[in-house]
Write a structure and sequence with these properties.
Elements (H helix, E strand, L loop, with lengths): L12 H9 L1 H12 L7 E6 L5 H11 L2 E6 L5 H5 L7 H20 L2 E4 L2 H10 L8 E3 L14 H7 L7 E8 L6 H11 L5 E8 L3 H11 L4 E5 L3 H9 L3 E5 L12 H7 L4 E5 L5 H7 L3 E5 L3 H10 L3 H18 L2 H13 L1
Parallel strand pairs: 1-2, 2-3, 3-4, 5-6, 5-8, 6-7, 8-9, 9-10
């Protein structure tokens, strides 16, 4: 069964706000209507959004179910970091409403599963007054499948990509969290590089801004493709050499983008351009499957492209990426982590 919930991603703030606020009512009503005779043992729910609260409370009380929160993003602080929500004027009331919802959702959760150790420490440090029962790492994960060998050249020809250059691919949301101005700076810097090409695929609230840049500047060393079906996107990842991650430098919360896993499963090293709060760069560098730089320094980004990208190292880092993916980001591992709580 699918529930009509409205747009909560890749849309304007007003539409996203109304859709997000209506979630708990819609989910609670649907559970009462369609699952009134079904008793649940486990409730899994992600954030964002944080407005599943009443639905979680209802099922937990009705069925005495175990409530496991998958803390994907820390909202509303991420919106505060980007200036979307502020603690003054009429937006102050919206912010306080979401903070109240956030704390209540954390407090009714039996376990909070975080994306990384940095997320765990952030919650422990900044939410000491919340009486959550347990907190642990339960990272993003994918089903492990064999790597399918494809004809890289034919895929590149199909999408008009260079055959003789190292292709760095970014795929996913193109919104405020990605820091589009910095992405543009990196693309401009890369125009002087003869061996690297940047491919951007995606959609989102900042897509039009990025698309205008491509139309106006017409970069020769980069191309932009609107959102693609998953099978086509996977083909382009397979024919690329390095996966890119962009996070706005203003973030004070430790984000952990799930798109990294799509690169790693295809044995692609990762170049992450991020803020200083996330530990994703540390994980990448310490485990030798990629590179990291600050997302407010395009010169540092360009330096990596000019001095560190060697084909042998790219291959070695790609193998390391796949191995680390299998050892740490498998769905089976998350299943064990979650189900262990129900066995105790």
């Amino acid at each position: 069964m699918k529930l009509k919930i409205g747009n909560i991603t890749k849309t304007n703030l007003i539409e996203k706000g109304f859709s997000t606020l209506s979630l708990e009512y819609k989910f609670t009503s649907a559970i009462r209507k369609y699952f009134k005779s079904v008793e649940f043992d486990l409730i899994l729910y992600p954030t964002p959004p944080i407005t599943f609260l009443k639905a979680v409370e209802y099922v937990k009380k009705r069925d005495k179910a175990f409530a496991y929160l998958l803390l994907k993003d820390i909202f509303p602080q991420n919106a505060v970091d980007l200036g979307i929500l502020i603690n003054k004027g009429w937006k102050k009331h919206i912010l306080n409403y979401f903070i109240k919802k956030e704390k209540k959702l954390y407090s009714i959760s039996d376990v909070i599963g975080c994306m990384s150790n940095a997320n765990v420490e952030y919650i422990k440090t900044n939410y000491q007054n919340i009486e959550y029962k347990e907190i642990e790492v339960c990272a993003n994960s994918l089903k492990i499948r064999p790597i399918i060998m494809l004809d890289r050249d034919s895929i590149r020809v199909k999408y008009n990509l260079p055959l003789n250059k190292i292709i760095l691919i970014y795929g996913g949301n193109i919104g405020k969290p990605q820091g589009v101005d910095f992405i543009i700076e990196c693309i401009i810097k890369n125009e002087l590089n003869s061996e690297t090409f940047i491919l951007v695929i995606g959609d989102g609230t900042e897509y039009n801004k990025l698309n205008k840049f491509y139309k106006d500047i017409k970069p020769l060393n980069s191309s932009l493709i609107n959102a693609l079906p998953k099978n086509e996107y996977d083909l382009l990842v397979s024919c690329s050499d390095i996966g890119l991650i962009f996070l706005d430098y203003r973030f004070t919360i430790p984000n952990f983008p799930s798109r990294m896993l799509s690169y790693m499963k295809s044995s692609k090293p990762v170049l992450a351009c991020t803020d200083l709060s996330t530990d994703i760069g540390e994980i990448i560098v310490d485990n030798k499957f990629g590179y990291w730089c600050k997302s407010n320094n395009s010169t540092e980004f360009d330096s990596i492209l000019n001095s560190k990208l060697e084909l042998n190292e790219i291959h070695e880092f790609g193998v390391n990426a796949r191995n680390y993916f299998e050892q740490n980001y498998s769905v089976d591992l998350n299943y064990i982590t979650i189900m262990n709580h129900l066995k105790s």
